[in-house]
Amino acid sequence: KVEFVEPPLGAVVGERVMVDGFVGEPATENQIVKKKVLNAIFPDLTTDDNGVATYKGVALSTSAGPCVAQNKLVNAPVG
Fold it and tell me: What is the pLDDT of residues 19-74, one digit of tens each?
């Protein structure tokens, strides 16, 4: 089964999705391709028991709250 991960209601279009404890500027497109960044992070992207998208167990969120799988698909890989 595949579901989209959606930003919370009230999130501003174009707002950066953050993970608490991870700081810094986003990687450039070139860095993502050359360093295979997505291959490194995909194994740690999952949904939790509430369908919230997480990275290493920490919620992906915006200023409006956490990002959640459309139908709250639980304990599933994100990618």
Answer: 999 888 888 999 998 988 889 999 999 999 999 999 999 999 999 999 999 999 99
Task: Say what the pLDDT of residue 48 is.
Answer: 97
Positions of E strands within the chain: 5-6, 18-19, 45-47, 53-55, 58-62, 65-66, 68-69
Helices (H), 1-79: 29-34, 37-41
φ/ψ bin of 32: left (φ > 0), alpha (ψ from -120 to 50), beta (otherwise): alpha
The CA angle 39-34-13, to the nearest 5 degrees, is 70
CA dist., res. 52 & res. 50, Å (int): 6
Q: Dihedral through CA 75, CA 78, CA 57, CA 8, nearest 10?
A: -100
- Least Cα distance to 11 among 70, 67, 62, 74 occurs for 62
